[in-house]
Design goal:
Layout (H helix, E strand, L loop, with lengths): L3 E6 L3 H14 L2 E7 L2 H7 L7 E5 L7 H11 L4 E6 L7 H7 L3 E4 L4 H12 L4 E2 L1 H9 L2 E2 L10 H11 L4 H8 L3 H15 L4 H10 L3 E2 L1
Parallel strand pairs: 1-2, 1-3, 3-4, 4-5, 5-6
Antiparallel strand pairs: 7-8
Helix pairs in contact: 2-3, 3-4, 7-9, 7-10, 8-9
Length: 212
């Protein structure tokens, strides 16, 4: 199997060097390009063949969301993984809308980084566990959420799922049985086409069920 071809886009060269070393040491990845800004990345993109891009959000010039939108307009097959620090949760809805497939904290362990690569290469969406916990702590329900395909009860359960509650905890919070929650959650997954909690969070943000 050929190594996954990766481009690193971050304005800190020390961070890029460290991530490059970890990825290439894993044996499953090959860094084919690096850029210190969105403009530099977009200029080099036509010359490079890549599978995954690690994209910093906060960079001089155009930010990660704008860069992601422009890159995917040129190369829609790219899988873009957002890199961020704690406290930058407000950016995620923009990265979701721009088309990012993965979301990692910059201090994530290598196992999470490799899992994110594998997940997006398989067509999925990845949230690092630490990021999912941080993100859901700051969510609140939008009273004007207008996703017509979900019932009010399903939206209520979706919000609690996004906050990291288990099915049993949701049942306890809503004074209903776990079996009922299981059924609602299965319906939500079927209606939204999501496969896991991470993709449900993306769906909820994209469709305005929750604000970040």
């Amino acid at each position: 199997m050929n190594p996954c071809r990766i481009i690193l886009v971050d304005d800190h060269s020390l961070f890029r060097n460290g991530l490059r070393g970890l990825l290439e040491h894993s044996g499953d990845c090959r860094v084919v390009g690096e850029a210190g800004s969105g403009e530099e990345f977009l200029a080099m993109l036509p010359r490079l063949e890549a599978d995954v891009v690690f994209m910093d959000f906060s960079m001089p010039g155009i930010d990660g969301a704008q860069t992601t939108e422009r890159a995917l307009a040129l190369r829609p097959e790219l899988r873009i993984i957002t890199l961020s620090m704690f406290g930058e949760e407000s950016y995620y809805s923009r990265m979701v809308e721009a088309g990012a497939r993965g979301f990692l904290l910059k201090d994530s362990p290598l196992d999470d980084v490799l899992e994110a690569i594998g997940t997006v290469m398989a067509g999925g969406t990845y949230f690092s566990p630490q990021l999912l916990s941080s993100l859901t702590e700051n969510m609140h329900t939008r009273e004007d959420a207008g996703d017509d395909q979900l019932s009010s009860r399903e939206r209520e359960i979706l919000v609690l799922v996004c906050r990291g509650l288990s099915n049993q905890e949701i049942a306890d919070a809503l004074f209903i049985s776990k079996r009922t929650v299981d059924k609602h959650r299965a319906n939500i997954l079927e209606k939204t086409g999501c496969k896991n909690t991470a993709s449900l969070v993306v769906y909820a943000i994209r469709n305005g069920v929750v604000d970040v």
